[in-house]
Amino acid sequence: MLDFYSIAIKRGMKSKLKYGQQQYDFDEGIMFFMSPRQVFGIEADSNPIGWMLLIHPDFLWNTPLGRNIKHYGYFDYSVNEALFLSEKEESIIDNIIDNIQEEYNTNIDTFSQNIIISQLETLLNYAERFYQRQFITRKITNHHVLDQLEKVLTEYFNGNNLAIRGLPTVQYIADRLNLSPNYLSNLLKVLTGQSTQQHIHNKLIDKAKELLTTTNLSVKEIAYQLGFEYPQSFNKLFKKKTNISPLEFRQSFN
Length: 254
Known about the structure:
Elements: E1 5-11, E2 15-19, E3 22-25, E4 30-34, E5 40-44, E6 49-55, H1 64-68, H2 87-105, H3 112-137, H4 139-158, H5 161-165, H6 170-176, H7 181-192, H8 196-214, H9 219-225, H10 231-242, H11 246-251
Antiparallel strand pairs: 1-4, 1-6, 2-3, 2-5
Helix pairs in contact: 2-3, 8-10, 9-10
C-alpha cells in the first residue's frame, strides 16, 4: 500500500499482480494508475522494463490539479482495466515523463513545482484521451461487456431480487462483470451514451411497462414488487423516464 498516486508503464514482465482481493495475469505491456492507499502486490518472474512515477498528494496541495485529480476516474480502475498503448501513444507518454524527470533533476526554483504539475496534467489528459480511444477500438471485448450486462440485468429483474433486495447497485453489476464501477460507467457512456445507473433504470422501466400491461396489479403493488418502499418514488421515476405516469401508461393500452 502506497501513500502516493502511482503511474507506471512496464514491459516484458512475466508476473502476477494482486490488486485488492483479485489476482491478474500481468504479462502484457500496459500502463496503469493507482490512487493512494490501494492494496496491491506483485510476484515477478523476470525483471521489468519501464518506469513508475509516484506523486505524493501534498505535492499537489492547493493547486488546480490537486482539486481535480479525483476527476480522472482511471485512478480507481482495476489493473485488468489498464491502458494498452500503441507505440505512438507510448512515445508521447514517455516524452512527458522525460520532461518531468529533467525538471526534477535541475536546480529547484520557484517555477519547478508548477512546471512539473503542468507536465503531469498533460500526461493525465493524454491518458484520458487514450482510454476513450480504447473504449472504442477494443470492440470485441466491449461488445461482450454489453451482452453480459444485458444478461446480468435480465437475470436479476426476472427473479425475485427486486422485491427482496431492491434495485441492483452499480457496484453489484460491476462485480458481476469483473469490472470496477468507474470503468464500467465510463465504458458504457462512450459506447451507449448512458451510465450504468441509467441502464439499470431503463431495465426497471421496461419491467414496469411489462407489469402494467400484462397484469392486474395496482400501481402501488407494482411499485412494491419492483423494490420501491414508497410508491410515489416509483411514480416519480417512471414519469421522469417516460413523461407520463404509470396509470396514464396503463390507460393508454385500454
